Amino acid sequence: MTLAPNQTELLARARVDLRMGVPIVLTHHGRTVMVAAAETLSSGRLNDMRGVGAPVLAITPRRAETLKARAYSDRVARIELPRDAGTEWIASVADPSDDLTRPMKGPFRTRRGGDDGLEAQSIALCKSARLLPATVVVDVSNTAEIAADKNLTIVSLDQKMIDMLSLEPVAHARLPLTVSEAGRLHIFRPDDGSEEHYAVEIGRPARNEPVLARLHSACFTGDVLGSLKCDCGPQLHTALNMIGQEGHGVLLYLNQEGRGIGLANKMRAYSLQDQGFDTVEANHRLGFEDDERDFRIGAMILKSLGFSAVRLMTNNPRKVARMNETGIHVTERVPLRVGKGAHNQAYLATKARKSGHLL
Ligand SMILES: Nc1nc2c(ncn2[C@@H]2O[C@H](COP(=O)(O)OP(=O)(O)OP(=O)(O)O)[C@@H](O)[C@H]2O)c(=O)[nH]1
Ligand SMILES: [Zn+2]
């Protein structure tokens, strides 16, 4: 046991720094870089980073494709920052909101060859901080001096990243609901400092039988505001009703807003959808994959509650596949087709066509 923060804890700290616009330092196998999130970097700090060396703007291959920039790698594209490029230039490359009104972005000089591991890691950090997936990265020669002098968070990635997230149950209490008075809400806290997730248990489902279950991803707009752009609100309430009628079951409310990109990025995606792009194209233009969710979280919560088999309420075959792969046996898929209307018809059709959802 040591007082000093470990790698997971330093990464949590680094995510907050990036959100606040404070650069961080990443090291791996003798290479050291300073990293800032494109979205939050100020002009003053950009100038400071230029004093260290020649920065690149790291973006995802998805975003590079939209910008017609060569990625030379399947994990990251590194655009050389022109001498006169300021934060406005960086924002216009990272953020697609004005792509249509300013179609002539570029041409871009991208770096080829060399080690791009830290650039790729920096983008993964931005994604987990729910920021736009774009970073300004500069190689640093005098690590100790820079970090000690400026008090920046330094994270060494030499140790293999522990991909095995773990979640702890922190509290639960009785919660009578409209659909059933026998409700109980459980809170689970990930050990990497990310958002907590919830399980609504109704009745006292037997642990040795397949439980009627829903893995619901947070949708503030649909679940809370009653947005007509998606089917989330009706799916949430129908699932709770079905479990209530059966008398036993569990609904996981996973804080993976916007298929894991966060609400701010989802609103950026909605704005692109208003410009004519569909839900998948909008994610790609922003630099994200179609779906950035980690469904292992759902499986871990189910296991922690003592379940090993589910009758899963979903139209998404990926959820079924991921549950089976992560040790939760799906004995039956229970369709959940509700909430179709004029505003979300095209959205649901795109999910069926491009993401394999069952209509
Ligand atoms: N990025 C993005 N996310 C969206 C959009 N519309 C809805 N979402 C999010 O999509 C997720 C929908 O989650 P779910 O309903 O659990 O999942 P699903 O993949 O549709 O599968 P099932 O509902 O189980 O059939 C929520 O996190 C919403 O916030 C969109 O246009 N773009
Ligand atoms: Zn929704």
From TrEMBL:
Catalyzes the conversion of GTP to 2,5-diamino-6-ribosylamino-4(3H)-pyrimidinone 5'-phosphate (DARP), formate and pyrophosphate. Residues 171-335 form the GTP cyclohydrolase II domain. Its EC number is 3.5.4.25. Pathway: Cofactor biosynthesis; riboflavin biosynthesis; 5-amino-6-(D-ribitylamino)uracil from GTP: step 1/4. This is GTP cyclohydrolase-2. The keyword Hydrolase applies. It catalyses: GTP + 4 H2O = 2,5-diamino-6-hydroxy-4-(5-phosphoribosylamino)-pyrimidine + formate + 2 phosphate + 3 H(+). Binds 1 zinc ion per subunit. Its cofactor is Zn(2+). Belongs to the GTP cyclohydrolase II family. It comes from Aliiroseovarius zhejiangensis. The active site is at D291 (proton acceptor), R293 (nucleophile). InterPro entries: GTP_cyclohydro_II (IPR032677), RibA (IPR000926), RibA-like_sf (IPR036144). It holds the Pfam family GTP_cyclohydro2. Keywords: GTP-binding, Hydrolase, Metal-binding, Nucleotide-binding, Riboflavin biosynthesis, Zinc. GTP binds at R214, L215, H216, S217, A218, Q235, E257, G258, R259, T279, T314, K319. Zn(2+) binds at C219, C230, C232.
